[in-house]
Design brief:
Layout (H helix, E strand, L loop, with lengths): L1 E4 L2 E4 L3 H9 L4 H4 L4 H31 L3 H9 L9 H28 L6
Antiparallel strand pairs: 1-2
Length: about 120
C-alpha cells in the first residue's frame, strides 16, 4: 500500500518485518539507521551491493573460463574466433554472460540513482 505524503511514499510494512527491523536494529551489520526509513535505505543499499557482488562473481567465472572480458568475447564471437561457437555449452555461456553483463549495468545504474541526494520537501 502506497500513499503520497509530503513528497515521500508511505509504504505499509507487515508486523513481522517491522519487528525484525526493530529487534535487530542495534547491530550495525544488520540494519543501521536512526529511524525506519534510514534502516530501509541501509538494507536496500546492502541488497544492491550484494547482488552486484554476486553478478561480478558470475562474470569472473566466464572471464576465467574463456580468458576474455565480455566485450572481447563478443568481438571474437562476431569475428568467428570462438571455437565451437554454436555448441550448446558456448551458446548458453554467451547468453548467460550477456545477461549477467546487463544485470551489472542495471545494478550500477540503480546504485548511482540510489546515491543521488533526494530533494528536500
Amino acid at each position: 500500500m502506497r500513499n503520497e505524503k509530503a513528497g515521500m511514499k508511505v509504504v505499509a510494512v507487515s508486523d513481522k518485518v517491522l519487528k525484525v527491523l526493530e529487534d535487530f536494529s542495534s547491530g550495525e551489520d544488520f540494519s543501521s539507521g536512526v529511524d525506519l526509513a534510514a534502516k530501509l535505505e541501509h538494507l536496500t543499499r546492502e541488497s544492491l551491493e550484494h547482488h552486484l557482488h554476486a553478478c561480478n562473481e558470475a562474470l569472473s567465472r566466464f572471464e576465467v573460463k574463456y580468458g576474455l572480458t565480455f566485450a572481447d568475447f563478443t568481438q571474437a564471437w562476431q569475428e568467428g574466433r570462438v571455437p565451437n561457437k554454436h555448441s550448446h555449452e558456448v551458446e548458453r555461456d554467451f547468453m548467460e554472460w550477456e545477461a549477467h553483463q546487463q544485470e551489472k549495468e542495471d545494478l550500477l545504474a540503480a546504485v548511482r540513482e540510489f546515491d543521488q541526494p533526494q530533494p528536500r520537501a
